[in-house]
Structures are given as C-alpha cells and as structure tokens.
Amino acid sequence: MAEKQTIYLHTGSNLGDRFSYMAQACEMIEKHVGKVSRKSRLYETEAWGMKDQPDFINQALEVQTELVPEEVLFHIKKIEKEIGRQENKKWHERIIDIDILFYEDLKFSSEKLKIPHPHCHERMFVLVPLMEIAGDFTHPILDLTIEELYLDCKDPLEVYMLDHGNDEEE
C-alpha cells in the first residue's frame, strides 16, 4: 500500500448554488482522492482575470492521499465534471474549479500538470485560505512560507471571510 502524502487543493465556485457545489466538491474529494484533514473557512473574492462575472467562493483543503499526482488530477477533473463543470475559456465563470497547489514538496511538470501550481503565489484568493490551514508550509521552489508569500503578494483583490461557515450541516 502506498504511503500517504499531504497535498493542498484549492476549490472555487462562482455560478449557481456556490455553497452546495463547494460542499459537494469536498465530499467527493474525501471519497475519491483522500481524507480531508484540514479545510479553511469559505472566502469570497472578485473574479480574477475577467471582471465581468459573479464573485467566487474559495476554500483551501489539506488532503491525505495515496494517489500519485496524475491520479489526483484525473479524479479532480472527474469530480468537476460530475458536479457540472463545463469546459470554458481561461478565467471564465464556473460551477466548480479544483486545483492542485502542492503535493508535499514535489516539483513536477508535465503537459497537463505543474506542481507547485505556477500562479498560486500571485493570487490572494489562493493565499488567504491556504494561510489559514498551512501558513508555515514552505513553497518548494520559492523557498518562502505561505505567510511570507501572502505578505509579498501584489494582487490587489480583496478577500472576504464569509459568515456562512463550512459545516455540512447548516
């Protein structure tokens, strides 16, 4: 049996019942990828890259998995489709988006997947939730903690913690 690895995922939604889609994504990740050992609260942010669309809800997840990176990618893409994501242009609105931010301290690059996520350090909507659950995690390429990346980030978009919470029973 493979050894468990700690990975960090980022989820986001800006269409339809965003809270329900985020909860579904978390449940399906737990079922198909691995145990969700920590999750941030939910945060709301303006859309990044394309302004003329609804605001996103975002969340960071720490997951314990036995899957290799390509298997994680396969399962999160399958989860996105099952929840109802349609293929769209980059940065357009979406029912659900799930990204692999980090896989332990692995540095990995293929045509379909880059780990660490190549833009995570440039986006407040990623850093703020991630800092809540892994502020002292060190970026394996930049050699800075998530908190240090947050302090250095030039992204002007505001990130707001939501009162909605992240419990399944609401």
Can you put this structure into words, describing what you see?
This protein has 170 residues and is of the alpha+beta class. It has helices at residues 18-32, 69-83, 124-134, 146-152; strands spanning 5-13, 34-39, 43-45, 56-65, 97-103, 108-109, 114-115, 159-161. The strands form two sheets. Strands 1, 2, 3, 4, 5 and 8 form a six-stranded antiparallel sheet that branches. A two-stranded antiparallel ribbon has the order 6-7. The longest helix is centred in the first third of the chain and has 15 residues, at 18-32.
List keywords for this structure.
single chain, disordered C terminus, 6-stranded antiparallel sheet, Alpha-Beta Plaits, 170 residues, 4 helices, 8 strands, 28% helix, alpha+beta
What is this structure's SSE topology?
Elements lengths: L4 E9 L4 H15 L1 E6 L3 E3 L10 E10 L3 H15 L13 E7 L4 E2 L4 E2 L8 H11 L11 H7 L6 E3 L9
Antiparallel strand pairs: 1-4, 1-5, 2-4, 3-4, 3-8, 6-7
Helix pairs in contact: 1-2, 3-4
CATH superfamily: 7,8-Dihydro-6-hydroxymethylpterin-pyrophosphokinase HPPK
* Helix content, binned percent: 25-40%
Strand content: 15-25%
Q: Sketch the topology as an H/E string, one letter per element.
A: EHEEEHEEEHHE
Q: Gyration radius, to the nearest Å?
A: 15 Å
Euclidean distance between termini CA atoms: 37 Å
Biggest sheet character: 6 strands, antiparallel
The number of E-state strands comes to 8
